[in-house]
Amino acid sequence: MAVREITGGTESAVKFGGIDRSNGTPLGCWQELYGMDFTAFPALKTVKPFSYKALADGITGYTVKNGEIVYTKADGIYISGVKTAVNLSAGEKQLVSLGAYILIMPDEVLVNTADTPVSVRYTAKPALSGTLFEYNQNQTRPTVSIYKLLYLDVPEKSVALSSYSVGDMVRIDYEYGGKKQYLSALISSVGKERYSMSGCVSINFDTSAYSDTYYFYTEKRKMDRFRVSNIKNAVISCPIPKMDFITEHNNRLWGCSSANREIYCSKLGSATEWGSYDGISTDAWAATVGSDGDFTGVCVYGGSVLFFKENVVHIVYGTRASNFTLSTVKLRGVQKGSDGSLCISDGLLYYKAPEGIFSFNGSASVRIDAKLGDDITDTAVMTANGRYVVMCAADKTVYYYDKRYSAWYTRQLADVISAHEINGRLYAVTRDSNKKMRLVMLVGNDSGYTDSDRSEFSAVSGELGRGSIFRIYKKLRMSLYHKKQDGETLELSAYISADGGEWRKVYELWGEKGNGEEISVAPVIPLRSRKIRIKICGEVSGDAHATLYGIYLDSEKGSEISG
User: Fold this and answer.
1) What is the rounded average pLDDT of the residues 233-239?
2) DSSP character for 160?
């Protein structure tokens, strides 16, 4: 009979990674890492509480323009905190930038921020009906183009008449040959003409872009003789397509409609002209897609416009209507409800898919969140800068991906409705149940922001010792640096759980003032077990923080008798 010698050992980690929920998480990586980041890498450092500033009450819509929040309320639009009176309907608004302009949807109000004072144009116009005339006269055919008129006669007492003026691009809807037709045309003049019907005013349309005086636009065919065509009950309007998502690219607005299965872009330089098809480089453009399902998001990436669904992306290439090309790539796309997750960092496009976080390089998508373990099914918004990709999920979890170290950690923030990159800093907009809104800093510092009360932190190891025989765990040591001033909070505790048992506190740091670096020793009542877990947690406030430089876990193998 022999008794084997008892041997001891120390497991240690002095270089820390992020969340790694794979089977057998090594010491130094974590099943849970909350409220601690890698700004002191290879150490772990507690993060400061979120800082924020309150936004105005009653905000109905907002966008980020020139590094600041531009927003609407019931009484107008606010730019740099200055109100410009705008008549808006009730309800939520979508604000879209196009150069110096901001388009407010669904009201179709166009604001020119370059004017002083800021000017406002109401582009939504009531429909106006009348009789549509097309008059072609060419008595010296074929040598000279003599005369061509296209105009709508409307009652001069029409209330809607005052809404239309020279320069408006309008859509003309009418019926011819038993079929519904439409034209897009620019108003060249409005007034009483010698040819106007009695009691009517003529709205004249510009036909200078068309050289063929023998082509009848209303009938869409060639005519070989003089004729005046008139169509009753024609209607003009200035419609903007009903779109699910809108973005700006190359001085055009782009959008898509799930109901119509269509993609649109506006006329070059215009946020309100979507039906201008004159055969020139500034034309608007539209296309129908054949894929199933609703659109889930739109963004600009790699010089193209990307329209996502959950299982496909439609990509529009080109620089003008005549060379726009629509391509389709099958991939795992943007989750419905996560359209605010599309963001770009270092040339890659990141977004939230139905099961997790993906990156896209222009031709293929790859899932990047494997270390987080299970699928993330909640909808989310995201933002990014050169170092971080940050996702704020609907379950209040904020996922940080530090690309410098390929490491993940999390925080908690409730009521996030959007996320933004502004001058390299990352922000979230929150709105609580009372509709109070805040701009919260996710990454960065700003002295003009107010700190939240406290920030909790927690680092939970995986199951250490998996696959080994029984060991006796005797001592936990931690290399710590901590800093705290009067009025600040710094609380840190360490816990151990053996073989899935309850957490037992083995160390506590509480209330110490000043700066200090120490090797803390947490004696453990000898535990004979196969697996052990470590949890380090607490909370900080103000500028107080703790930095974890190393973990050392002493153990020895139990004696064995053989014979």
Assistant:
1) 88
2) G
